[in-house]
């Protein structure tokens, strides 16, 4: 039973990051939008879920709302609030170009984290909320509820995988890819660059919020560490390991990365304190990211372009693209 | 009040050094180096290591820390960023985040998690009418930054290597055709940029406290200064850095200090939405 629970926990965690990596794949892998604020959307979704699902504030800790909605309604609200944030942020930043998006979204996550820490009235400050409700069925006995959560996460992952596959293969997804490859050409072909980017950004942010909601299901507590920059880069590394631009790669990258990372926590050495282990994990993640970008830029799965001819028969295209891209800058 | 203004100028001066280093890399290499602010912390902690752990004199250890950090910056460019030439500009940016994680974690592993200070003798303070206005160390920081600005000005406008560097930042291929030794200049760029960040780090260690998270705090404020300064002249960036330092210091008079970063963020947001080309740059060049 306990091995099954550990396995269920691992699958839950992999599923959560896989959903986030799928969402990031649409923004960054397909659309070329460098969103360093994954944690902002993740955390906002998680908090929106907890604040709408928990019963009204009482006793030792304070938080706003507390509507006591059922868990599935809270999950949808979590995703929607995250999408709303993406709409507000994206409607300004996607007009002005790539670097600003990266910097401001990085700052955004940090600002929201500070806000939640410094305003205990919103959600109990740095100590966070304990005992956030998780989805459950009455017929399942106590500890096996974790397996129900794992099953729910897998279902969400399956649905989002199918959705993202549909979106990336659609005309919409192809115009997004065209914008990423050469914005000037896409614009001259009649693609409304800003609208396509904004739609993709908001759509993906919904699923980042949903990933945050599922992280609450997994931990049943939430603290401002949900906004940590580590979450953003775990998702980035998962996507880059798996293969930037490929949906299957995003899922597989999350499975591989989380498998390795959770495996590391089972290493028992006396002098390694939990703090030190966290630092070593960070160092290792950074190193893995650099090494993969340097030596294995394609990742595990290269994106498959069903419509285009294979690159060999179109040998002229990359050169043309490269020159026009250089001129475009 | 006056002390707050002085503190603002000090943090603005430190920020100026780091931001100029950040901008040099951004203009010559064309990407945001998120790892550069971590070099500030690296230099601060190596100064701590030489000064407190090895017991060297504080001036010697600051100079040694600057040397170590400059070498680290150049090595990182040689090993990580130069092999990534010709790939989309966000690839080296993401790699620099990986490097930032690595440096940050290594600092934590080797020196622990707490707040550290250098072993510097107690400083005299300047007083006006019996009120302490500024420490000698604070005045020294502003003077050092001013000297660096003057030196940078003469280097970039008068010397051959400075003018070649500006030419290279403008159009690398053209500079190469005209006989500029670009590979030498790239080493120089990274050395100068890292040395500026390192100087900022030792100055922070010298006047205040250092802690491992400092790099992540600095990333936001440095990129804020870079965005506000815009892509125009480097002097606009310098002015923006001082303004950001002053603003975040003066803001503490009006609102609680926890929200200083938010003020800076609000300023970035305003600039991005209203004047994305930066406050101090000329009319934006039309592209595409």
Automatic annotation (TrEMBL), chain B:
It comes from the Bacteria. GO terms for biological process: amino acid transport. The chain crosses the membrane at residues 6-24, 31-50, 56-81, 93-115, 135-156, 187-208, 220-246, 253-274. Pfam families: BPD_transp_2 (PF02653). GO terms for cellular component: plasma membrane. Belongs to the binding-protein-dependent transport system permease family. LivHM subfamily. The keyword Glycoprotein does not apply. Keywords: Amino-acid transport, Cell membrane, Membrane, Transmembrane, Transmembrane helix, Transport. PANTHER family: AMINO ACID ABC TRANSPORTER PERMEASE PROTEIN, BRANCHED-CHAIN AMINO ACID TRANSPORT SYSTEM PERMEASE PROTEIN LIVH. The lineage of its organism: Bacteria, Bacillati, Actinomycetota, Actinomycetes, Mycobacteriales. It is a multi-pass membrane protein. GO terms for molecular function: transmembrane transporter activity. This is Putative membrane protein. InterPro entries: ABC_transp_permease, BCAA_transport_permease.
């Amino acid at each position: 039973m306990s091995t099954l629970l550990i396995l269920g926990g691992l699958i839950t965690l992999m599923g959560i990051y896989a959903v986030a990596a799928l969402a990031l794949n649409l923004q960054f892998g397909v659309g070329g939008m460098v969103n360093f604020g994954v944690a902002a959307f993740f955390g906002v979704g998680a908090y929106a879920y907890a604040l709408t699902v928990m019963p009204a504030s009482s006793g030792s800790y304070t938080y706003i709302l507390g509507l006591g909605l059922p868990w599935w309604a809270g999950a949808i609200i979590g995703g929607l609030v995250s999408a709303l944030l993406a709409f507000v942020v994206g409607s300004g930043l996607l007009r002005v170009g790539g670097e600003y998006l990266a910097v401001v979204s990085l700052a955004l996550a940090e600002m929201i984290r500070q806000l939640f820490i410094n305003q205990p009235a919103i959600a109990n400050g740095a100590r966070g909320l304990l005992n956030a409700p998780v989805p459950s069925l009455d017929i399942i006995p106590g500890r096996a509820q974790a397996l129900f959560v794992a099953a729910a996460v897998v279902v969400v992952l399956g649905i989002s995988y199918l959705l993202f596959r549909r979106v990336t293969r659609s005309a919409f997804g192809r115009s997004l890819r065209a914008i990423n490859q050469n914005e000037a050409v896409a614009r001259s072909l009649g693609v409304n660059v800003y609208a396509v980017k904004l739609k993709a950004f908001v759509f993906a942010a919904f699923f980042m919020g949903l990933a945050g909601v599922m992280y609450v299901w997994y931990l049943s507590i939430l603290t401002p560490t949900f906004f940590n920059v580590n979450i953003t880069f775990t998702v980035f590394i998962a996507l880059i390991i798996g293969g930037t631009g490929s949906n299957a790669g995003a899922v597989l990258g999350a499975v591989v990365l989380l498998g390795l990372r959770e495996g590391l926590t089972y290493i028992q050495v006396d002098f390694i304190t939990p703090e030190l282990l966290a630092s070593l994990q960070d160092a290792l993640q950074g190193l893995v990211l650099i090494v993969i970008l340097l030596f294995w830029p394609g990742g595990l799965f290269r994106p498959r372009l069903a419509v285009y001819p294979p690159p060999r028969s179109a040998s002229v295209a990359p050169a043309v693209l490269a020159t026009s891209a250089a001129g475009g800058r | 009040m006056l002390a707050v203004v002085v503190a603002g100028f000090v943090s603005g001066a430190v920020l100026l050094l780091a931001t100029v280093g950040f901008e040099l890399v951004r203009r010559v290499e064309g990407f945001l180096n998120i790892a550069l602010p971590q070099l500030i912390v690296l230099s601060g902690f190596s100064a701590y290591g030489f000064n407190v752990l090895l017991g060297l004199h504080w001036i010697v250890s600051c100079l040694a820390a600057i040397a170590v950090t400059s070498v680290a910056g150049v090595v990182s460019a040689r090993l990580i960023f130069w092999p990534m030439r010709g790939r989309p500009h966000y690839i080296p940016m993401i790699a620099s985040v990986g490097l930032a994680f690595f440096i940050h974690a290594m600092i934590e592993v080797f020196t622990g998690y707490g707040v550290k200070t250098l072993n510097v003798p107690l400083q005299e303070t300047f007083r006006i009418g019996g009120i302490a206005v500024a420490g000698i160390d604070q005045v020294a920081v502003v003077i050092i930054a001013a000297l660096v600005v003057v030196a940078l000005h003469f280097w970039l406008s008068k010397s051959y290597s400075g003018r070649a560097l500006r030419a290279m930042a403008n159009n690398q291929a053209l500079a190469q055709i005209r006989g500029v030794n670009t590979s030498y200049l790239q080493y120089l760029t990274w050395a100068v940029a890292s040395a500026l960040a390192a100087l900022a780090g030792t100055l922070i260690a010298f006047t205040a406290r250092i802690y491992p998270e400092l790099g992540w705090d600095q990333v936001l404020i440095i990129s804020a200064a870079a965005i506000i300064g815009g892509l125009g002249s480097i002097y606009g960036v310098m002015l923006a850095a001082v303004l950001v330092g002053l603003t975040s210091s003066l803001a503490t008079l009006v609102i609680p200090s926890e929200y200083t970063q938010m003020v800076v963020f609000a300023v970035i947001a305003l600039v991005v939405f209203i004047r994305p080309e930066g406050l101090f740059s000329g009319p934006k060049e039309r592209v595409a």
